[in-house]
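Action item from last week, closing it out:
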Amino acid sequence: MKRILILVAVVGCLVSLMGCVSAPAGLAASTTPVVPGSYKVLGHATGSSSYFSLLSIFPFGHPDYDGAIQNAVQKFNGNALVNVRSYSTLTFLYVVSITSLTVEGDVILQ
């Protein structure tokens, strides 16, 4: 009986480590209309927004694209992103799942 409990515990630990999914969410040239040559690239930044849900049914929040973009832009005190990429990551932790939206790109100042 003790061996069975140990085996169940080991399998449970291994299963809990295999609960992450990542998927591309999109690409965009910029977050605002820009004219080539009318801006200065300040640096590359990443911003994110996350929320969690119980049993993957009851969400507490929602992914906020604008919040993720502003999070990235504020790192260099710019006002927009160019060469934008975004992706979503879903992590399962038994009864709780965490969804993260990540946006990255070059921060510019117009």
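Closing note: The longest helix spans residues 2-16.
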